[in-house]
Write a structure and sequence with these properties.
This protein has 238 residues and is α/β, with parallel strands linked by helices. It has one domain: 4-Layer Sandwich (Metallo-beta-lactamase, Chain A), CATH 3.60.15. It is globular.
Amino acid sequence: MPVPLSVRTVVAPVFGTNCYVLSAPGGACVIVDTGAGTAQDVVASVRALGLEAVAVLATHGHADHTWDAAAVCDELDVPLLIHEADAYRVTDPFGTLGLGASDGAASGPLAQALRGTGIDPRSYRTPRRVDTFTTRPGVVSDLGLDGLGLRALHAPGHTEGSTFYLVELEAGPAALTGDVLFAGTIGRTDLPGGDGAVMTRTLRDVVPLLAPGARVLPGHGPATSLVAERRSNPFLAG
């Protein structure tokens, strides 16, 4: 049985990305989805609590989930870990969204979201060390991170490498679902690399592999539960 983990949430000031700090009783921890503007709070929390970071994880490679990964990885001397199918996004966050590198950083929704935050829209950096893992839909893989018990479940559709991270929390099983499954809805599939048919298969074949009573910790918005989503989320009907 995995040791139950504690979870702390830092909400990014840009796009409201949920960044999760998951820690074991012995002090080992991982940080998941370091959105823009989370680095200072995350690093301060890790150090104030005396935690020992093992890795930064990304549920997928979109910039709103990886913007502060380089800063956090540098400060805590850990790698960024991401599914191999999304690793290419980390080195070209704007081009992989169909935007030019400079245009993507300096204009459009991203620049608008950064306005007033004090974050330079051109400040994105690729972490010095990016490690990848391989898994596929229908197969739960243990990531082997210092007894934290994190498991990965490939859940493509929003992006090619979107991944659920399965954990045991003090309150029971949970899934960090990134931008695949939210309270009451699902992630968009109209960005480059998104695929509506693949998302449908993920909802049909991968979501049922989650523990029936799992808590759902999404990439944006409030936490929910698989029970609640099966009851009220129109995309999980049937």
